[in-house]
Each structure stands twice: as structure tokens, then as C-alpha cells.
Amino acid sequence: MARTTTIELHKEEMKFSAGHFTIFSATHRENLHGHNFTVYVALTGEVGDDGLMADYGPLKQAVIARCKAWNETFFLPERSRHLRLERDANGNHRAYFNGEELHFLARDVTLLPAANVTLEELARVFGEELVGDGAGMARDHVTRLVVKCASGPGQWATWEWNGNG
Ligand SMILES: Nc1nc2c(c(=O)[nH]1)N=C([C@H](O)[C@H](O)COP(=O)(O)OP(=O)(O)OP(=O)(O)O)CN2
Question: Model pTM?
Fold first, then answer.
């Protein structure tokens, strides 16, 4: 019977400060605001006879790199059915919501491949980018990956990947 373990990573550097607004309907959204988000990742897999599942170092660095890439940015959702996004001649962003026109400089924006900028979508996008095509997970005998994204203490959403289908 293979022995499994779960390694949990929630290091101090696994954080990013970012702005957003949640869209609740075609006519209701929040005002622009931000959070100090934190990220927790857990990987579960088989432990080999050398007492090692896999070096978690590369995954840890990938989490920290993604947090750095998402630090000090403003998220706009690319797939919201309530928000239309355009780029102007300078590559800056115009967002149209319920008759409002919001302008953002390209340097300040991260487009999120998501329907909304919510904890659940941030956790999903974060996790899907860590898993990729799953090859690294298979190589490292990781059978389950959990990503939790918190917008502050005591408030988070969870995304989970299971390698066993
Ligand atoms: N299902 C979801 N609902 C809501 C989300 C979300 O991500 N998923 N997000 C929001 C707002 O973005 C809101 O900012 C969430 O946090 P809020 O509690 O308003 O603010 P703080 O993080 O500062 O927490 P405090 O309790 O105010 O300290 C709403 N709904």
C-alpha cells in the first residue's frame, strides 16, 4: 500500500496586494477597492522508498513568482458578461459597465481569464496555472493540489485538482 503525504505551503511571501471590483449583476457592482491577498497551496502524493514525494521547491517558487506577478495590479475580468473591455490606440483599457466608462492605464491592469474577479476565480486561475497540462504533477507523483486564496484573515475560496480524474 503506497504511503501518501500532504505538503502545505503558506509562506509569508505567498501574498499579493491588488485591486478589483466584484460584479453581482448587470447593474450592481462594488466600487474599486483592494485587498492584501494570501495564498495557500497543498500538494498530496505518494512518498517513495527514499522518503520523498518530490522536491516541493519548484512549486513553491512558482507560487511566489505568481504572487509577485499579481502584486500591485488591478484585475479586470476578461469573461464577464456584464463588462465590456476595449483597448484604446495607446493600449490602455476602457471598461464599460451599466452605462459607466472606466479608464485604466495598461501598466496598472492584469486581465484575468475569468468571469468575475472573486476569490473563487482567483483561486481557480492560480491553480490552473500551477497545474498546467498536469505533466509536472504526474512527474512529481502529485495526485491532488489545493489552492486557497484569501482576501484577508478568515475569508478565502478553495480550488482543487485531482490527478486521478
Ligand atoms: N462569492 C463571493 N462573494 C464575494 C466576494 C468574492 O470574492 N466571492 N468578494 C466580495 C468583495 O470583493 C468584498 O471585498 C469581500 O470582502 P469584504 O468582506 O467586503 O472586505 P474585506 O476583505 O475588507 O473584509 P472585512 O470583513 O470588511 O474586513 C463580496 N462578495
Answer: 0.95
